[in-house]
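If your schedule permits, I should be very grateful for your opinion on a structural question. Thank you for your consideration; the sequence and its tokens are set out here:

===
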Amino acid sequence: MRRFTAAELEAARDRLVPDVVADGLHVLFCGINPGLTTAATGHHFARPGNRFWPVLHLSGFTPRLMKPSEQGELPSYGLGITNVVARATARADELTSEEYTEGGRLLTAKVERLRPRWLAVVGVTAYRAAFDDRRAAIGPQERRIGDTRVWVLPNPSGLNAHWTAATMAEEFGRLREAARH
């Protein structure tokens, strides 16, 4: 992937990145919001150092390591990607509590429409803010959206040093096993 200039990244601020979705997915992964590299490329989890794509493969969701530019293949594996908040920012801490609340409302409507088996929110802080659930932890949640079960996964950002690719893959793998049944 080519490196973007600071001006190119700044020009991507507030852009919207289309979801990768289909009806009846096994798992709809939900990021916090697009970063500037994602907005500049139009590909989810595109920032170098983001571990989403390697962890997706290591956990067995995909048969090979995919590039962000191959995101359109995900529905063929029963997978999709959306975000809690649609607008692109440099950092998630630029989002307001109102944006998270509205994002949770819009995400709920999207899940009710698409009806995936599982909604997997990558980032416990984002899940807590979007769904006003301060006690949520990594793993399956009690909450359901219609028939859709909810799982909170660790944030794959390279900034999340508490989780390695291997430990994240274990948690993603737990979800993969649950989604198979």
User: Anything to note?
Assistant: The chain has a mean pLDDT of 93. Residues 4 and 51 are 19 Å apart (CA to CA). The domain at 6-180 is CATH 3.40.470.10 (Uracil-DNA Glycosylase, subunit E).
